[in-house]
Amino acid sequence: MTVAAPRTTDDAPPAARGRAARLRAAGGRWWARFSPAGLVGAVVLFAAALGPSLMPRSPLYQGVIAGVCAAIGYACGAAVGWGGRRIGLRAPWPAHRRGLVRWVCAALAVAVVVGALVVDGDWQARSRVLLDMGPPVSVRPLRVVALAAALALLLVLAARGLRRVTLAVARLVGRLLPPVPARLVAVAVVLVATYLLVDGTVVAGVRHVLETTYAQLDEQTWEGSEQPTAPQRSGSPESLSPWSSLGREGRRFVSGGPSTAELAGFSRSVGLDRDVMEPIRVYAGLDTGPDLDGIAARVVAELDRTDAWDRAVLVVTTTTGTGWVDPAGAAAVEQLWGGDSAIAAMQYSYMPSWVTFVSDRATPPAAGRALFEAVHARWSQLPPDERPALYASGISLGSYGSQGAFASLEDVAARTDGAVWAGTPGFTPVWAHLTAERDPGTLEIHPVLDGGRTVRWGLTLRDDAASFAEGRATWERPRVVYLQHPSDGVVWWSTDLLLDRPDWLREKRGADVLPDVTWFPVATFFRVTIDFFVAGQAPAGHGHTYVGEWADAWAAVAPPPGWSPAATSTLRTLLDEPQGSSIAAR
Question: For bias kind Low complexity, which ranges apply (predicted)?
Fold first, then answer.
């Protein structure tokens, strides 16, 4: 029996050979349209984007960041190649060697991509161990490469489309103007038209969907949130703020917290012989006033109604974007004081914090200022020995908003009895100024200012440097505490990361950050941008999740009579139990 030899391309019919040749030629022409220097830049920034960062992330996030960085790298590389050609630079190898050079470069590119994926898998695994998270997804490299390549190609093709449109406009304008002015006018016209098109369609459409979605969510009620019956709570039958007006997060806040039985049990466990009280929680929803001042006035009216001025402590808390109040932070104050406390908050939005951060950074500090000023004005009318100690607080965007009520640290000390702020975004003016003015030789992630006389920073509880006792000066009152984790991308994100290396990437890394986290132009900015979004998914004590740390902070800022370090440890353990404190999408 004769076995037929395998059929080769040369044995194929002439029509088939012609189609194959045309396809190869078309593929070659398509590939040749890409800038070699641009491809080099794409590979370099792709690899840099996969380098170690603050938080592990899913293949989706990693693919997106790698694709965006690859597109930017291609643009930069193409620009460099174009500039080189304009000044007469040519490849140093002869024309007949170009094919070999291309194959060598392709092999190097594959090696770099594979190496970057190996590094990515290694640091992700080590970071997950460091942060007590599970193992990474096994098919991660394939997903990352596929998504990054598709997104980078889409962005490059979109840029090429805009370039073609610009050239067409330049030809039209060139009938009236000289070549150079015509090109400039064409670029300006296309940029403006693109902005208006994107802003008027894509951005407006996304904004509408988000507003509709979160407005509907705000009308819902979390499972387990029930209308309070105690008059000390907003939303109760006696309240001036109806239950239906509080919004989803407001309803959760006023219906939550420790009961008097739980407060009494905790007091006995830490050896405090005291009578406990029903904590006061007042809240005003977004629709309870015509503007921020009107909403704040409703909060003050609720403080009057509940006799909050007779309590030992009053905490003015600025919420996050959706109106959320951290349950662990509120519970820490109430357990600390056995319920002899009042917490006041108000809603200024129902959108997630990241949406507010992108689209409306002015409202949170305006809301924080309106609420604190209203409460402080009423509080100032009372005799000094007959009013509660007044504190300011907030987490994340709430910390940014709360600090909007103050011009400086001196202002905080003059008008409050202390403050606790957690996960403060790096663009917060007061925090940024204090961090920049830190004592020489102290770290950006854990500054010491003026020897620790008024303000101190606390890191992750696993870090020995977290002790609030650190400081060369006596810690005077009022006291201010900033809680921040080295792995919290919300704290460390800044547009300066695009081209400047910050001090926290020059200095020793924090306890929950890999030591090989480094800075690379452009890529680090996008890495930390993703860290910004995934930080709220971290376990307690890491990233943007603050739980037990509230015990240390409030015990340092507002300790009740008879309080002890052992009581702080017990409270920290209690808070570390599941509290629903993750602020993802808050």
Answer: 234-247
- The answer to whether the Cα torsion of 559, 315, 464, 272 is positive or negative is positive
pLDDT tens figures, 83-139: 877 777 776 666 656 667 677 777 888 898 999 999 998 998 899 988 888 776 666
**Contact between residue 424 and residue 491 where contact means Cβ atoms under 8 Å apart:** yes
Residues 276 and 311: their CA atoms lie apart, in Å, by 12
Give the whole-angstrom CA distance, residue 41 versus residue 27: 22
Q: Is 396 helix (H, G, I), strand (E, B) or coil?
A: coil
The stretch 5-24 carries a mean pLDDT of 57
Q: Is 180 exposed, middle or buried (0-12, 13-18, 19+ CB in 10 A)?
A: exposed
Q: How far is CA 234 from the centre of its chain?
A: 30
22 has pLDDT over 70:
no
Q: Give the Cα separation of 264 and 270 in Å (integer).
A: 10
Contact 298, 319 (CB under 8 A): no
* pLDDT surpassing 80 at residue 358: no
What does the block give as tokens for 565?
Answer: 């370090």
Quick one: pLDDT at residue 584? 44
Entry field: residues in the chain: 586
> Which residue carries 């490059």 as its tokens?
156
Question: Residues 12, 17, 20, 25: is their CA dihedral positive or negative?
Answer: positive
Assess whether pLDDT exceeds 50 at residue 581.
no
At position 83, the amino acid (one-letter code) is G
Backbone φ and ψ for 214, nearest 5 degrees, come out as: -75, -25
